[in-house]
Amino acid sequence: MLLVDADAARSERVARLGRTLDWIVDVAPGAADGIARLGATPFDLCLIHLALPPTEATALVLKARTCRPVVATAAIDAHGGGAVEVLRAGAAEVIPLPRRPEQLAAVSARLLERRAPPRLSGPPLIVGDDPALANALTDLDRLAGSDMPVLIRGETGTGKATMARLLHAAGPRRGERFVAVNLAAVPPERAEAQLAG
Q1: pLDDT tens series, the chain, 197 aa
Q2: How far apart are CA 121 and CA 102, in angstroms?
Q3: Which of 36, 94, 123, 130 lies 20 to 30 Å from 155 when distance is taken between CA atoms?
Q4: Is 52 exposed, middle or buried, given 0-12, 13-18 or 19+ CB atoms closer than 10 A?
C-alpha cells in the first residue's frame, strides 16, 4: 500500500494499521514523491489524504490510474476539501480516517474487488509508447467501470476491435459474452435489427 500524506504523525498511525494486517506500507510525504513511487513500484492500493492541495491529490489519482495494473485509489477525508476533484479524476471513494485495522481491511477489500482485473495473460494486446496511445489507454481505464455505451472510432487497422475487447474485459459485463458486429458488412436496412435485436 502507498500512503500519501504530509502529516508524519497521522501517516504513521495509518501505516501502523496496515502493518498490523501484515501489509507492506510505503509512505510518501507529498504528491511529487508519491507520483515517483507509483512510477517505480507496483502497488495494489493507494490512499491519499485530502490535506494535500486538490491539484496534487488529483495528479496522484491520475497517475495511479495509468499504472499497469491500475492501482486501487481512495482519498482520506479532510473535511471535504478536494473530494469532488479526486472522485472526478477516478478515485474509487472518499473514506474517513481509518482508526482500526478492520476498517482499513474493509476499505481495501472493497477497492480491490472493484479494481479492473489484471491484464490478459500472454503477450500484450496493445504495445506502444505513443502519447496518443497512452491517452487512449487512460480513457479506456476510466471508462471500464462505466455502464454507458462507448463509441470507438478510427481508421481501418488502428485497433478499434482490440480496444473494445480490452474495455469489455475490464468492464462490469466482463462475465458476459463479447459480440463483435461488423456494420460495414451489414446492409443499412438490416443494421438496426442487428443492433437492437
Answers
A1: 999 999 999 999 999 999 999 999 999 999 999 999 999 999 999 999 999 998 999 999 999 988 877 889 999 986 657 888 888 888 889 999 899 999 999 989 888 877 644 444 444 567 777 888 888 888 887 787 777 788 888 888 888 888 888 888 877 777 788 877 777 777 888 877 767 76
A2: 33
A3: 123
A4: buried
For residue 193, give the 3-state DSSP assignment.
helix
Q: How far apart are the first and last CA of the chain?
A: 46
If you write DSSP's letter for every residue of 70-137 in order, what string do you get? PPEEEEE-STTTTHHHHHHHT-SEEEPPP-SHHHHHHHHHHHHHHSPPPPPSSS-S-----HHHHHHH
Tally of CB atoms within 10 A around 73:
29
* Whether the Cβ atoms of residue 47 and residue 76 lie closer than 8 Å to each other: yes
Task: Give the domains, in start order, of the chain with CATH numbers.
Answer: 2-114 (3.40.50.2300), 131-196 (3.40.50.300)
